Amino acid sequence: MTAHDHDDALDCGTTIDQLSDYLDRDRTPRDPHIESCPDCLNALEALERVGRLSRDLIDADAAELPAPPESWFERIFTSIQEELRAGRSLPISHPDPRVQITVTEGAVRALLRDSGDAIDGVFISRTEIVGDAETLGAPVEINLTASVRFGTSIQHLTDELREVAYAALAKHTDLNVVAVNISVEDIHTDIKDVS
């Protein structure tokens, strides 16, 4: 059985379990494939964020709220596994018709996740690009699922997240984004250094 036979394998063949083991060994010995593969590097970053989140939640004073159920972490890991696949190739316009440039859907999802997680009090658990993103100019919607910090203004954080998502997509893609839809599905206690 090859790595490609695993359901949790990335497009390059590396599995989430292999990446998790690699992180557990503090990325030693250095694996040249993992350290140079964009899919692996995105997956490592996502796994590190979730690891920090889980450690911080365990360490946090959860007197006001109980710790999130184990299924919460499982949902996040499942979403990360699904989203780390390269997915569709999204076109980037270029003035020379002989030049074709694309960005993978996985890279755009990683961009959205990184942009959202950079907001203090927000943790992105799922991203989705809905619509014909493979056709330049076709309208698409972005669906983001997030957890927000207990005691913060959900309205303020979702407004900020929407602005950040629009700005990141406008700067790095040619997607015709007609809506950024945000669902807050979890509230977490104070977390340090999640982004």
UniProtKB/TrEMBL annotation:
Belongs to the asp23 family. InterPro entries: Asp23. This is Asp23/Gls24 family envelope stress response protein.
